[in-house]
């Protein structure tokens, strides 16, 4: 289940919410650390399954591939069980980029 920050804050008990507020007033060190750890945990979970075929990835296999996507700050990680899955993923991205380019060429958008 996905919840947004406003819903997460509303579901917190009063004591935790006050502690959260105090941390933010002191520069948010604990909050920043908690967000960083949560991102790392989610990145590890995302690397457990192939982004294309969803098969479980053996972390010790030399046939795994992981790429980083997107601009700094919004970077995402995608892992693949084999080279052909990564090639399929990249070809899909190229196809989408070409379609967007053709669409913008037709409309004259930049
Ligand atoms: Zn795969």
Summary of the model, kept short:
Helix content is 56%, strand content 9%. It is mainly alpha-helical. It is extended.
Element order, helices and strands? HHHEEH
Present as ligands are: zinc ion
Number of domains: 2
Please give the number of β-strands. 2
- Tally of separate helices: 4
Low-confidence stretches: none
Structural class of the helices, strands and pairings? mainly alpha
Strand order of the largest sheet: 1-2
Shape: extended
Give the averaged pLDDT, no decimals: 89
Distance linking N and C termini:
37 Å
Oligomer: single chain
Sheet bearing the most strands, described? Answer: 2 strands, antiparallel
Strand content bin: 5-15%
Radius of gyration: 20 Å
What is the percent of helical residues?
A: 55-70%
Task: Characterise this structure.
The chain has helices at 5-11, 14-25, 29-46, 83-107, and strands at 65-69, 76-80. By secondary structure, it is mainly α. It folds into two domains: 1-46, no CATH class; 48-110, no CATH class. The protein has a two-stranded antiparallel ribbon with strand order 1-2. It binds zinc ion (ZN). Zinc ion is lined by residues 50, 52-53, 55, 80-82, 85.
Task: Give me the secondary-structure topology.
Elements: H1 5-11, H2 14-25, H3 29-46, E1 65-69, E2 76-80, H4 83-107
Antiparallel strand pairs: 1-2
Zinc ion is lined by residues 50, 52-53, 55, 80-82, 85.
List keywords for this structure.
4 helices, 9% strand, extended, binds zinc ion, mainly alpha, 110 residues, two-stranded antiparallel ribbon
